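seq as requested:
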Amino acid sequence: MKLKKKTIKRLEWKGIEERSYAFSPFDFRNIGIRGEAGLMRMDRVEEPFSVISFGKKLTITKAGYTWLHLAPFHEQFWATVMFDENGKLFQYYFDIVFDNHPLPNGDAWFTDLYLDAVMQTDKGMKTLDEDELEAALARGDIDEKAAQGARKALKRLRKLVLGNEDEWTRECMRVREELMEKISG
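struct tokens:
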């Protein structure tokens, strides 16, 4: 299989020239997930980077922005929770993963399985890259079992998140604040 390995430090993201990190375990008791969390603060970026999300241009990398990465145990997804320079949560990005290695101390990593979801609490959740998953299956980069696993993981993710958006936001804000203290320490 030709899948990409990604780390909790997200060193693969180009254009972020200086970063600060902090890591710790997390436990979202009311949601039923726990794992390893990492916070990356973008201290200096080459230039802000934007994407089109829900039909509008959205800046996702900029000096002062933070990304909270959640690597849950026993799940086939990772969350990147994006905050602006004022600490306002503006987007969740979920990677559906082939294998998940939520290791401590910033060593966590996953193998990306193409399928993703994005959520803005006022706009709901949208599935992304279904075409990439199907193209990977057609090319033989993944097999039918992996594709079915991705679809099943997306369904589980939707069940864990939708209807619990306020709880997710509270927990993500709490973990971000704890990790910001470590960075600013």
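The first helix runs from residue 130 to 139.
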